């Protein structure tokens, strides 16, 4: 596996992370508890906390990764159904892309932010740019309807939802944007596509769309981080 430029460092950090990722992948496939396996490889490779977070968000057992990939919508099929968007999940990931923050392309096919910003997120100067990137993509590739749900407990979520509502109205897109206490409780279990990379949301839905990844490719945004997708093609341990 290639090391993403900028992450290898003088101490070979990037290569060390990839080697740890392969071991973590193998131990999960052998049935070891996920947390115990992560502790073991983290200690063996003396990984930083941020590196362990990379593995936690980016490396999954083969059977789980394949199940998630099988539910991911590809091509234009997602436009045939209502699209429900995990608002903060998608928006924060797009902001991270615009800011050049580290991301991970997980072996389950999802693009994920690794900074755990959802706990402390607040709108910033880049918020409007991220919002524009999201709604312009949807204007170019409009779904049947689009429903943005934001986490109400998060700071200024109502304001962010209102900005999305206005953007949808301005572009003539059919849909809504609102803040709710627990967005995942409102996502339909069938008959719709859910835009999210959140693990729990992806596991619970019938079909999911990696909207932030589509926006990244559509906008030509640079990816800065680690790519673990090739792990499914290799199960060997690197010692």
Automatic annotation (TrEMBL):
Domain DUF5616, residue spans: 79-213
Domain DUF434, chain residue ranges per copy: 18-71
Database matches in InterPro entries: DUF434 (IPR007368), DUF5616 (IPR041652)
Source taxon at top rank: Bacteria
Protein name: DUF434 domain-containing protein
